[in-house]
Design a protein that fits this description.
Elements (H helix, E strand, L loop, with lengths): L2 E12 L2 E12 L3 E5 L6 H8 L7 E6 L2 E3 L4 H7 L1 E4 L11 H5 L6 E2 L2 E2 L1 H14 L16 H14 L4 E5 L7 H16 L3 E5 L3 H7 L2 E6 L2 E8 L5 H9 L18 E10 L3 E9 L3 E5 L6 H9 L6 E6 L2 E2 L5 H7 L1 E4 L3 H4 L7 H6 L7 E2 L2 E2 L1 H15 L15 H14 L4 E5 L7 H16 L3 E5 L3 H7 L2 E6 L2 E7 L5 H10 L4
Parallel strand pairs: 3-10, 3-11, 6-9, 9-10, 15-22, 15-23, 18-21, 21-22
Antiparallel strand pairs: 1-2, 1-4, 4-5, 7-8, 11-12, 13-14, 13-16, 16-17, 19-20, 23-24
């Protein structure tokens, strides 16, 4: 296969850090080249160099063996390079056709021509196997999987010959991932090169051709065969460690003290008549497909949604329905699935993000004690292992794993009695994932009750003491995690009845 892209000796320096240190990458036409590395290894910076968003300080880029300089994203697009970021940059208020041709509209004499754009959109969607999507549908009304199809169609509208996909399966269910793989396979057959970034190592073996691994801004392996490179080898290259399992023994077991009690809780169209308890020091997992109501359950318990029936009590105290203020005051904390849009203040410092739920303790007689706030947040950072452990550091510059640990630190500082964790390792690399596991277990050992949602069933089973299996908003089975297997849970979810 012809080499489409060659990056040699790429260096990118930011104040105080060398994000890329002589990185090499070679991508061939018609291959799926998987780019792996921990958060902070340099993947995002390399993507931005490839997309023209960053200019390298040193090194060479070659396109079909000819040297090129990407002066900006538009230059990369003209060359045939398209990037689909994990957080899709689509306009929800525009239609599918308008999103696909945004910036290169079908126009004549200054007027947009809707009919040709609609026809071209229909052809692109049919090419991707999604002829059922209508060009005039607002993108904001689409599920995550369909939005991803629109992003791929937009890339193909520019006649892209290399498409970068950053964590494309992070928000997808199993059936949607299978469809994504079908589309990627079709692109490969058409000779389009794909750079595929994922923290799910099983996906790499299923879809990838070759692997390049980054660590600390350097290329530590290049051109490894994806199908035959073992997980232990990849993990060792990424982290220098192999012992990253979630199943290390807990030193303490849950007590009999009931912390969280949910009774007859219902939210129309989402879940119905839920009743369960979580005890001090216990981790209870919620297993189910995307759309089974898992996130909505956590949001309703937290007060972000108002239930139609039922009640939630914490340490025997009934919480006011639909009030997050009452939930936080009672000792309830939530780490939502979408941490950047739902949990973090991206323009603020790490310290201010951590203290956000505890501000009243630093205010007295109209004065705010910033010195005490900085000291407490620095201590909390140290407890959860955020790097750098600097309260003044901008939270937006942290890796995904460190951002997740900062959210846990927020509730540590607030002395939360119960934590609701929604996909706590989504978009987190295998090394940082092990750190998050340690923090979750540590909180449970301190007596915190934990209600955990995770689409990673091995992770859920390894972390949880008990598991509630959900299907279409109803608990169909509850058992100790040790009594369940991944295949048994999948069978229950698919069949709709307990085994």
């Amino acid at each position: 296969m012809d080499t489409v892209l060659t990056m040699r000796g790429i260096v990118k320096q930011f104040p105080g850090v060398r994000a890329l240190d002589h990185v090499d990458l070679e991508v061939r036409a018609g291959e799926v080249h998987c780019l792996l590395g921990q958060n902070g290894a340099g993947k995002s910076t390399l993507i931005k160099v490839l997309s023209g968003a960053h200019q390298p300080d040193a090194g060479e880029l070659r396109w079909h063996d000819a040297p090129v300089r990407l002066s900006g994203p538009a230059a990369a697009t003209r060359l045939g390079i398209a990037t689909i970021y994990q957080e899709l940059d689509l306009c929800d208020g525009l239609s599918i056709a308008e999103n696909i041709f945004l910036g290169h509209e079908h126009a004549r004499a200054g007027f947009t021509r809707r009919a040709p754009a609609a026809r071209a959109t229909t052809d692109l969607l049919a090419r991707l196997g999604h002829a059922e999507l209508h060009p005039g549908t607002a993108v904001g009304a689409l599920p995550a999987a369909a939005k991803q199809v629109v992003s791929i169609a937009r890339a193909l509208s520019h006649d892209a010959r290399l498409i970068v996909m950053d964590e494309p399966s992070a928000a997808l269910g199993n059936d949607e991932v299978a469809n994504l793989f079908r589309i990627v396979g079709q692109l490969r057959a058409e000779g389009v090169a794909v750079v595929y970034i994922s923290h799910r190592l099983a996906e790499i073996r299923a879809i990838g051709d070759r692997i390049t691994v980054l660590k600390d801004g350097r290329t530590v392996a290049a051109g490894l065969p994806a199908a035959t490179t073992g997980t232990d080898e990849v993990v060792a290259l990424m982290t220098g460690r192999t012992d990253l399992a979630a199943s290390a023994a807990r030193s303490d077991r849950p007590s009999n003290a009931e912390v969280l009690s949910v009774t007859g809780l219902s939210l129309p169209g989402r879940f119905h008549d839920l009743s369960f308890t979580v005890h001090a020091g216990e981790i209870v997992g919620l297993a189910g497909l995307v759309g089974a109501g898992r996130s909505e359950i956590l949001e309703t318990i937290y007060g972000a949604r108002r239930p139609s029936t039922g009640q939630v009590t914490l340490d025997g105290r009934r919480l006011r329905p639909g009030s997050t203020r009452a939930a936080v005051a009672a000792g309830l904390g939530l780490a939502p699935e979408e941490r950047k849009s739902q949990a973090l203040f991206l323009l603020e410092s790490v310290g201010r993000n951590i203290s956000a739920a505890s501000l009243p303790r630093y205010s007295r007689l109209g004065w705010f004690d910033r010195r005490r706030e900085r000291a407490d947040t620095r201590t909390a950072l140290g407890r959860v292992g955020v790097r750098p452990a600097d309260p003044a550091h901008p939270v937006r510059e942290l890796s995904g794993g460190n951002q997740q640990k900062a959210i846990l630190a927020r509730w540590l500082l607030d002395d939360a009695r119960c934590l609701l964790l929604d996909e706590p390792t989504r978009g987190v690399d295998v090394g940082a994932r092990a750190d998050v596991y340690t923090q979750i277990r540590g909180l449970a050992e301190q007596g915190v009750a934990v209600l955990l949602v995770s689409s990673d069933l091995p992770e859920l089973l390894a972390l949880s003491d008990r598991v509630l299996v959900l299907r279409e908003g109803t608990v169909i089975h509850a058992a100790a995690a040790a009594e369940l297997t991944e295949s048994a849970i999948i069978a229950m979810i698919m069949e709709g009845s307990a085994l």
